C-alpha cells in the first residue's frame, strides 16, 4: 500500500525508545506526532497544552489519509499554499511509514475502503485536567476571513441549510489546519471566488478568472456518493 504522495522520503518520527521505532504513536489532527514508552498510561485521546493527540490505529489512519486528499485538492486549487501542503505531505508520509511497519497492510486497506467521514469523529481530549490555553494573539482561521467571504456564505446560507447543512459547517472559524474539523466553508473562500452548485453532499467553489479552478467543499455530516 502506498502513501497519498510518496515521491519524497518521509521525515523520521522521533522515538522515546532509543534505537527503536515506538510501539505506539500518537498523532494530532495537524499531523504532529508524539510517542512514549508507557502508552498504557494515556487515554486514546489526550491533550498537551492546546494540542489534542490520538493513538494511531487503522481507522484514524484512514481519516488522516482522507484529509490529505482534501489538502491535495485545496493546494492544487490554490486554497492553501503549496509550501504548507508540502509540510503536511512529509508529515503524513512519516505517519504512513510507521503505520505500514506496525499494522498489517490488509488492515490499512480495509480501513481506507470502509471509511465513511459521516461516521467518524476526530479526536477530542478525554480527560478534564487543566491545560494551558493558546495565547490570545495566536493566529487562527478567523484572522484570515474577509468580509467578502462572509457575505458570500451569507448569500447561500438559507439554501444550504434547507438542504441539510449545519450552520457550523458554513461559518466555523476554529483551528489552524485544513485537517481541523472546526474550519467551515467561510475559511476556504479567497478574494474573487464565487460559489457554484450547492447540493446536500458538497458546495462547489469556483476560483477567479481566467483559470476559474473548481474545488468542492464536502459535507462531513452526510453520506457521500
What does this entry look like structurally?
Strand 3 and strand 4 (51-55) form a beta hairpin. It is elongated, with a radius of gyration of 18 Å. The protein is of the alpha+beta class and 225 residues long. The relative contact order is 0.15. Helix content is 32%, strand content 14%. Helix 1 runs antiparallel to helix 2. The chain has two domains: 25-119, no CATH class; 141-218, no CATH class. Mean pLDDT is 76; it is low at 1-19 and 126-141.
Set out the fold topology.
Blueprint: E1 25-28, E2 33-35, E3 45-48, E4 51-55, H1 58-76, H2 82-102, H3 105-114, H4 147-162, H5 167-171, E5 194-198, E6 202-206, E7 214-218
Antiparallel strand pairs: 1-2, 1-4, 3-4, 5-6, 6-7
Helix pairs in contact: 1-2, 1-3
Q: Percent of residues in helical segments? A: 25-40%
User: Can you tell me the residue ranges where pLDDT is under 50 for at least 5 consecutive residues?
Assistant: 1-19, 126-141
Cross-sheet strand order for the largest sheet: 2-1-4-3
Shape assignment: elongated
Instruction: Assign the structural class, choosing from mainly alpha, mainly beta, alpha/beta, alpha+beta, or little secondary structure.
Output: alpha+beta
β-sheet strand percentage: 5-15%
Largest sheet features = 4 strands, antiparallel
Q: Quickly count the domains.
A: 2
Determine the number of helices (DSSP H or I, runs of at least 4 residues).
5
In round numbers, the mean pLDDT is 76
Evaluate the radius of gyration.
18 Å
Helix and strand succession? EEEEHHHHHEEE
Amino acid at each position: 500500500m502506498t502513501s497519498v504522495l510518496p515521491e519524497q522520503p518521509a521525515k523520521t518520527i522521533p522515538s522515546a525508545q532509543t534505537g527503536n521505532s515506538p510501539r505506539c504513536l500518537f498523532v494530532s489532527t495537524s499531523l504532529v506526532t508524539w510517542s512514549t514508552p508507557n502508552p498504557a498510561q494515556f487515554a486514546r485521546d489526550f491533550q498537551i497544552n492546546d494540542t489534542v493527540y490520538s493513538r494511531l490505529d487503522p481507522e484514524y489512519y484512514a481519516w488522516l489519509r482522507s484529509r490529505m486528499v482534501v489538502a491535495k485538492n485545496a493546494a492544487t486549487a490554490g486554497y492553501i499554499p503549496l509550501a504548507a501542503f508540502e509540510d503536511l505531505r512529509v508529515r503524513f508520509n512519516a505517519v504512513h511509514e510507521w503505520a505500514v511497519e506496525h499494522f498489517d497492510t490488509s488492515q490499512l486497506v480495509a480501513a481506507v475502503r470502509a471509511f465513511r467521514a459521516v461516521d467518524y469523529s476526530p479526536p477530542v481530549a478525554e480527560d478534564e485536567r487543566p491545560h494551558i490555553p493558546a495565547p490570545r494573539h495566536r493566529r487562527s482561521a478567523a484572522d484570515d476571513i474577509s468580509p467578502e467571504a462572509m457575505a458570500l456564505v451569507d448569500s447561500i446560507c438559507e439554501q444550504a441549510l434547507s438542504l441539510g447543512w449545519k450552520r457550523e459547517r458554513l461559518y466555523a472559524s476554529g483551528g489552524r489546519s485544513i485537517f481541523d474539523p472546526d474550519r467551515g466553508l467561510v475559511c476556504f473562500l479567497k478574494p474573487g471566488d464565487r460559489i457554484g452548485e450547492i447540493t446536500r453532499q458538497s458546495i462547489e467553489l469556483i476560483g477567479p478568472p481566467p483559470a476559474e479552478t473548481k474545488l468542492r467543499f464536502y459535507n462531513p455530516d452526510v453520506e457521500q456518493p
